[in-house]
């Protein structure tokens, strides 16, 4: 047998010099430094020098490290350096040198394997195979040289198995069983890695043809692999075995579970063999196997016969039963202290074990809860109880694992009967779990996260800005927790009310007082708003409020009072139904919040502003209907706004302003609507500062004010507040146009002069920031649909023109302003519109070209430029494109789009968007001259990024454009005026790849080229076709899979037609 030949006799390594070039072209004009001797491939390698280079390169403190790294990299890049691998492995005693040599061998096998003749391939296969066997005899588990050898062997198998090496797995298993447990362990690791490579990590490294071949062959070999694993587990029953081999066996079985046919798992005794190691030093590996087995139940598409389905249920019941028995023993050790109390003192291995327990129990109850509660309710309740204890551990990984199950569990029980004011006519599942659900409630409260995530940033004036996160993982987690508690309230309403009232009441006891727990408790109470009937909710809310007010009264420390007050206001803000039905209470709460806005204690001002905003959000109309004395409540607030917000920071004031603007927006649309809105807005805007900073006397001294940071902050605050007003109340734009906007233009001019005169320093930075604020303000006005001609013309003349003329810097925000104009000003085809469009091209697009051609240094300009291009193409294609296409600058503009393809993802995505729009619009409108001039250059660039290893991030988008370009080629007139486009493109694509990638066979290129035209009708299939060819261009190929590739292409064509 092959294995006897390999192990039984000294196998001579293959002659690596057979493919050695005649003479190296490397010539040195000067004496060669000692380390550079390794670059002379035509001479014997000096192994001492090579080892020295490797040592120097790996030593962080060595002064020759940089030079050694350079030389070693140069050595690796030499096309025939791999011919020295054998010599290095035989003569060097340095492990690091062996590793470098094996990296060279791995690279040559991955890319140039097909260049070797059959004898060389066989020699290398046997040589590597024997090396793996020899190296694996050692007990060193961290042998990175062996790991690299395993990688090389797997790469060879991916190339030659099963066609040229049909006995690979048989050889590996036979030789393992005939030598030692260490060799068995490594062979299992190889089989595990091979399975992962073929079934999991094969997307970018194996073509579909090879993938299918390897997967099919691996499935054929499953009985043999399964038998190997099962034999080891059976052998371990009665014989002392190397523990690392047993661990590797369980890990390998875990890896194969997902790809292995179900009958191997459920119709054999393999699960029993695995369960025997549950209470052993291999419990983590055993649990990992069980998790994989249970998770198979998530995929109901797997083929299941009636026999397998029945066996699966019995096996799951067995797994659950034995796990519960094991957990009873394990939890017995936590008699005096709970598991969540001692978890912090556990060692790393036990913590991993607990995480695996959480994963297994969560999977069991998420996938098989119906089976378990029908056949084993007693153990199911016990297991859920254990999972609750584990869920209470202070570890986010454990809780997030269990919470997914709890969330589904609670929602399923809720969905069975989602009502609170009706009685069910049948016994509900929830009645079986009352005790579990009550325990779960306490766990969820203990883990309750913050309602929203706020982070602090500092703006150009060093002013603190609070920004709310709306889409972070933490916020998503809070939303899920809130939803889970909300649904849980339907299941145990009475118990939940008693729990919360009792827990808040306990805080009155000094021994129980915990401000952090009170926060979580109140966040949880806020989450169940709306879950009870209105009557029950009112009673519950009043009880909670009484306890919290009593708690606040009895606390003497201001810090404690602040925490309690903050929570009171949070809960009030959540229970808006109560506020809507208790109008006087709403006014009382709002006034109390105004008092808190004057408090100095840390966080109270933020709390007051945020809760005022939330109340307004839920009850805006109440501020327009209720009265304070003789005035409408909103008028009372606006008149007293300077006093209310007097001690707030500017960002806090703007939170209050935004809330009030939301109220004003709700003014009824009656005859006096506009006058009321304008009068309310005037009241608000007049209270921004204690003086009118837009008055002429203050604007006249702007050049001196701008150097003062505090005064610059005031200007910024006024501008941001006006922008907020225009965004929420677009009606105010027209009234500001005559008196206010001219002042903004004046401020812009003054700041512009300052930036031109100073060019650096405080005045320059502040003036530049104020300019950007004004630009954003004008963009807000235009996005509010205020596009009066005179105003837009003034924006173009004063602001847009500055982009072209400013010699100091280009403000990216002006490009965004241009996008706002394009989006909102209707293209009516008038002379004014066309003139403005031409102005945009000359003032914004053309001046941006040199900056976009250096996009990596000008990212904001590049992104805003491409957004402007995208908007002009979308909203004004006909006039814009015809105007631009006829100008000499068109080629430069188009080149910016092609160049941007290779930039970072944000820029590249925008560039692809623009190119896609142009190609689609030109096709719709039959602008064929564009294709005659630009189709081929665009195709070349698109192919360039598709087959660039570093441009994978927008591959889907690249393929969509590529497919469209191929698809429309049949409709476009001949690109050279003579030949059909399919001929032109086929010849071009074949010629390009044959020339650029001589490593690919011409037949493969032809199949690729033909497939492009046949498959372009289905974007997904087209992408699969391109993906396969992407794999092939990075290695030297053969035509051994040619027929399979043709068959695959034909199969895809049939799928396209269907």
Automatic annotation (TrEMBL):
GO cellular component: cytoplasm; nucleus
InterPro entries assigned to the protein according to its UniProt record, in alphabetical order: ARM-like, ARM-type_fold, CRM1_repeat, Exp1_repeat_2, Exportin-1/Importin-b-like, Importin-beta_N, XPO1/5, XPO1_C_dom
Xref: PROSITE patterns: IMPORTIN_B_NT
Molecular-function annotations in GO: nuclear export signal receptor activity; small GTPase binding
Importin N-terminal domain segment(s): 68-134
PANTHER family associated with the record: EXPORTIN 1/5, EXPORTIN-1
Family: Belongs to the exportin family.
Protein name according to UniProt: Exportin 1
Organism: Encephalitozoon cuniculi (Microsporidian parasite)
């Amino acid at each position: 047998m092959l294995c006897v030949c390999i192990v039984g006799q000294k196998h001579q390594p293959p002659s690596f010099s057979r493919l050695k070039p005649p003479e190296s072209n490397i010539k040195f004009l000067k004496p060669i430094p000692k380390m550079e001797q390794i670059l002379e491939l035509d001479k014997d390698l000096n192994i001492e020098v090579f080892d020295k280079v490797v040592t120097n390169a790996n030593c962080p403190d060595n002064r020759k490290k940089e030079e050694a790294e350079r030389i070693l990299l140069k050595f690796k890049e030499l096309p025939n350096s791999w011919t020295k691998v054998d010599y290095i492995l035989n003569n060097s005693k340095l492990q690091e040198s062996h590793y470098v040599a094996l990296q060279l061998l791995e690279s040559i096998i991955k890319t140039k394997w097909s260049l070797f003749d059959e004898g060389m391939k066989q020699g290398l296969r046997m040589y590597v195979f024997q090396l793996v066997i020899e190296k694996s005899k050692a007990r060193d588990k961290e042998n990175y040289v062996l790991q690299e050898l395993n990688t090389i062997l797997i790469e060879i198998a991916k190339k030659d198995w099963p066609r040229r090496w049909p006995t690979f797995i048989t050889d590996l298993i036979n030789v393992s069983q005939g030598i030692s447990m260490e060799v068995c362990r490594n062979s299992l690791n190889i089989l595990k890695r091979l399975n992962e490579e073929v079934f999991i990590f094969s997307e970018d490294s194996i073509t579909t043809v090879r993938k299918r071949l390897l997967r099919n062959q691996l499935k054929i070999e499953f009985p043999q692999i399964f038998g190997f694993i099962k034999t080891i587990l059976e052998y371990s029953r009665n014989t002392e075995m190397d523990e690392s081999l047993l661990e590797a066996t369980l890990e390998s079985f875990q890896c194969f579970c997902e790809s292995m046919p179900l009958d191997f798992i459920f119709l054999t005794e393999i699960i029993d063999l695995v369960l025997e190691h549950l209470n052993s030093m291999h419990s983590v590996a055993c649990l990992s196997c069980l998790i994989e087995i249970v998770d198979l139940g998530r995929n109901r598409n797997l083929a299941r016969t009636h026999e397998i389905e029945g066996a699966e249920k019995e096996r799951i019941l067995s797994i659950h039963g034995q796990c519960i028995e094991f957990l009873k023993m394990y939890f017995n050790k936590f008699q005096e202290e709970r598991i969540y109390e001692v978890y912090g003192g556990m060692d790393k291995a036990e913590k991993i074990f607990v995480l695996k327990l959480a994963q297994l129990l969560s999977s069991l109850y998420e996938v098989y809860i119906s089976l378990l509660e029908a056949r084993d309710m007693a153990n199911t309740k016990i297991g859920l109880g254990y999972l609750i204890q584990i869920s209470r551990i202070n570890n986010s990984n454990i809780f997030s694992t269990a919470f997914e199950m709890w969330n589904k569990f609670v929602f399923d029980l809720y969905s069975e009967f989602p009502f609170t004011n009706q009685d069910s006519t049948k016994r509900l599942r929830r009645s079986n779990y009352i005790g579990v659900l009550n325990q779960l409630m306490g766990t969820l409260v203990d883990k309750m996260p913050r309602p929203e995530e706020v982070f602090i940033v500092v703006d150009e004036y060093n002013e603190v800005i609070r920004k709310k996160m709306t889409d972070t993982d933490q916020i998503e987690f809070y939303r899920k927790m809130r939803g889970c508690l909300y649904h849980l309230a339907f299941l145990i309403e009475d118990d939940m009310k008693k729990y919360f009232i009792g827990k808040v009441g306990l805080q009155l006891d000094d021994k129980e007082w915990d401000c952090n727990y009170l926060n979580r408790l109140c966040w949880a109470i806020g989450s169940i708003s709306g879950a009870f009937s209105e009557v029950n909710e009112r009673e519950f809310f009043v009880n909670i409020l009484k306890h919290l007010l009593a708690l606040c009264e009895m606390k003497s420390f201001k810090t404690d009072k602040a925490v309690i007050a903050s929570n009171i206001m949070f809960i009030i803000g959540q229970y808006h139904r109560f506020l809507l039905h208790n109008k006087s209470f709403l006014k009382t709460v709002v006034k109390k919040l105004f008092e808190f806005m004057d408090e100095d204690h840390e966080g109270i001002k933020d709390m007051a502003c945020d809760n005022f905003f939330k109340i307004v959000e839920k009850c805006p109309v109440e501020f327009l209907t209720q009265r304070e004395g003789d005035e409408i409540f909103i008028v009372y607030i606006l008149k007293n706004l300077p006093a209310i917000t007097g001690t707030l920071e500017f960002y806090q004031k703007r939170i209050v302003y935004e809330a009030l603007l939301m109220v004003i927006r709700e003014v009824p649309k009656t005859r006096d609507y506009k006058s009321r809105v304008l009068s309310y807005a005037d009241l608000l805007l007049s209270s921004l500062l204690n003086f009118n900073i837009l008055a002429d006397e203050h604007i006249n001294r702007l050049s001196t004010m701008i150097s003062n940071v505090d005064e610059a902050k005031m200007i910024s605050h006024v501008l941001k507040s006006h922008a907020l007003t225009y965004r929420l109340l677009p009606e105010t734009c027209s009234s500001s146009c005559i008196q206010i906007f001219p002042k903004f233009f004046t401020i812009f001019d003054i700041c512009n002069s300052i930036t031109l005169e100073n060019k650096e320093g405080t005045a320059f930075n502040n003036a530049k920031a104020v300019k950007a604020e004004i630009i954003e303000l004008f963009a807000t006005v235009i996005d509010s649909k205020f596009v009066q001609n005179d105003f837009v013309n003034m924006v173009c003349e004063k602001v847009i023109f500055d982009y072209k003329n400013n010699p100091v810097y280009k403000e990216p925000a002006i490009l965004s302003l241009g996008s706002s104009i394009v989006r909102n000003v209707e293209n009516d085809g008038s002379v004014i519109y066309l003139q403005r469009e031409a102005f945009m091209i000359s003032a914004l697009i053309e001046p941006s070209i040199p900056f976009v051609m250096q996009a990596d240094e000008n990212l904001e300009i590049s992104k805003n430029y491409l957004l402007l291009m995208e908007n002009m193409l979308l909203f004004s294609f006909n006039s814009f494109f015809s105007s631009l296409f006829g100008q000499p600058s068109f080629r430069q503009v188009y080149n910016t789009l092609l160049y941007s393809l290779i930039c970072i993802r944000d820029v590249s995505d925008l560039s692809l968007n623009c190119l896609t729009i142009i190609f689609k619009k030109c096709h719709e409108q039959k602008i064929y001259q564009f294709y005659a001039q630009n189709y081929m250059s665009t195709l070349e660039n698109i192919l360039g990024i598709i087959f660039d290893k570093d441009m994978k991030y927008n591959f889907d988008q690249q393929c969509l454009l590529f497919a469209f370009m191929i698809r429309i080629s049949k409709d476009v007139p001949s690109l050279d005026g003579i030949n059909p486009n399919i001929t032109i493109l086929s010849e071009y694509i074949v010629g390009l790849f044959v020339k650029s990638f001589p490593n690919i066979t011409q037949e493969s290129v032809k199949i690729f080229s033909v497939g492009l035209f046949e498959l372009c009708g289905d974007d997904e299939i087209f992408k699969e076709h391109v993906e396969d060819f992407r794999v092939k261009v990075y290695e030297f190929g053969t035509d051994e899979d040619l027929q399979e590739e043709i068959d695959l292409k034909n199969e895809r064509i049939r799928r396209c037609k269907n």
